[in-house]
Design brief:
The complex is a heterodimer of chains A (241) and B (148).
Chain A lengths: L6 H33 L13 H28 L2 H33 L7 H25 L8 H10 L2 H11 L9 E2 L2 E2 L3 H44 L1
Antiparallel strand pairs in A: 1-2
Helix pairs in contact in A: 1-7, 2-3, 2-5, 2-7, 3-4, 3-7, 4-5, 4-6
Chain B lengths: L2 H27 L9 H7 L7 E7 L5 E2 L5 E7 L4 E7 L11 E8 L5 E9 L12 E3 L6 E3 L2
Parallel strand pairs in B: 4-6
Antiparallel strand pairs in B: 1-3, 1-5, 2-3, 3-4, 5-6, 7-8
The chains are: A mainly alpha (241), B alpha+beta (148).
Chain lengths: 241, 148
């Protein structure tokens, strides 16, 4: 990992990788969404409402995956003092929050016709909303410490906040198992899938597509933060000189 | 011990403590965070008549009966261990069906029947095309099979 401690070496790889990830992700996403909208059959009970799953599930996955990434970056920052960890954590926060919000919104739109309600305070929905607020808190802390000129832009307090917040991730995952909830239990487990194969396959496309797109956005944001840091450092040198 | 290792140990200890605290909090929440009571919970714990609760379970097959006024329905809610009769006046969601999940908001009357003021349909984790309707997901083999 420390091979990439040098931003120049990181940028050398990140620059071409961004484009590949972006276009491959966009292609898979559009293909998966079109197949999910027009090719797959409707569900026997929900009808066409089921199709929102091709957006909802990747959004939930990236909302939770994003925070996991922030937590890993926080450990790397606190333990190994990796110079890119703070940049990575900051870069993940905004798209992570966006996907969490997308998950909440698509879930709400699905819930109205299926359950008969836009919103209920059950374990899954509440813990996902808490994740969204955690993202907002992290963004506020990280941007505040960046303004104070912390190295890479994330203070230790922000990193510790990220680790404390990570306890919510297993809670979200298990919420439908531990508690009676309105949200259905997990469809896809290690033992198999209770979503029929004819409905399932476009989900693989959108899941991979959204994930690659997410990675591309994170790389773009990391490059932007690094560039901004460079400009600021140069300005300071000029002001001193 | 190098400073790096010290920080690693510190971070691991802090993480363990955090996970421990989280698990304790979650297990203490076990009952409070439940979204609804099952009929068996009601039988074991007892719910005072008039207390607002949510009751969740499966609608017993063949139990939905429409009253003469046209808007009131009667049905039985079960979790396999206990069954509770319920009534509801109003518009039920589309997915409210016999043999599928329901969450009813309301309270028990004096006679042990549940009077619902709102119905929510609970969807299960099975998704399949219409051609497969009537087939059942087998939990042990993970295959779709014709029902009986």
């Amino acid at each position: 990992m420390h091979r990439f401690a040098n931003p120049t070496r990181f940028l050398k790889i990140a620059r071409p990788l961004t484009g590949w990830l972006f276009w491959a992700g966009l292609f898979l996403l559009v293909a998966g969404a079109l197949c999910g909208l027009f090719v797959t059959p409707a569900d026997y009970l929900q009808g066409d409402t089921v199709r929102i799953l091709y957006i909802h599930v990747p959004a939930a996955w990236l909302g939770m995956g994003g925070w996991t990434g922030i937590a890993v970056a926080a450990i790397m920052q606190l333990v190994w003092r990796h110079p890119l960890a703070a940049v990575g954590g900051r870069a993940i926060a905004a798209p992570g929050a966006l996907f969490t919000a997308l998950c909440l919104m698509t879930g709400s739109i699905w819930g109205r016709p299926t359950w008969g309600t836009w919103w209920e305070w059950d374990g899954r929905m509440t813990s996902m909303l808490v994740l969204f607020f955690l993202y907002l808190g992290y963004i506020a802390l990280a941007e505040a410490s960046a303004k104070q000129g912390q190295q890479g832009g994330v203070s230790s307090v922000t990193a510790i906040f990220a680790l404390v917040g990570a306890i919510n991730i297993p809670i979200i995952n298990r919420s439908v198992v531990w508690w009676n909830s309105l949200h259905q239990g997990p469809s896809i487990t290690l033992r198999g899938s209770s979503i029929d194969g004819s409905l399932l396959w476009p989900l693989g496309l959108t899941l991979l597509g959204f994930t690659l797109l997410f990675a591309a956005i994170v790389l773009m944001r990391m490059r932007a933060i690094l560039a901004r840091n460079k400009v600021e450092a140069r300005m300071q040198r000029m002001a001193r000189g | 011990m190098k400073a790096k290792h010290q920080r690693l140990v510190l971070a691991l200890v802090a993480l363990m403590a955090l996970i421990g605290a989280g698990l304790l909090a979650v297990s203490a929440l076990k009952d409070e965070a439940a979204y609804f009571y099952t009929p068996n919970d009601v039988r074991i714990k007892g719910v005072a008549p008039g207390k607002s609760i949510r009751l969740g379970g499966m609608v017993v097959k063949g139990s939905i009966k429409r009253a003469a006024d046209g808007v009131t329905i009667r049905f039985d809610v079960t979790d396999g261990k206990a069954t509770v009769p319920a009534t509801f006046s109003g518009i039920a969601p589309d997915l409210f069906k016999e043999g599928s999940g329901v969450v009813a908001e309301g309270a028990f009357d004096g006679s042990g029947a549940f009077v619902a003021t709102n119905l929510l349909a609970k969807h299960d984790e099975r998704y399949m095309p219409r051609e497969l309707e009537g087939m059942r997901y087998d939990e042990s083999t993970h295959e779709m099979k014709a029902e009986r």
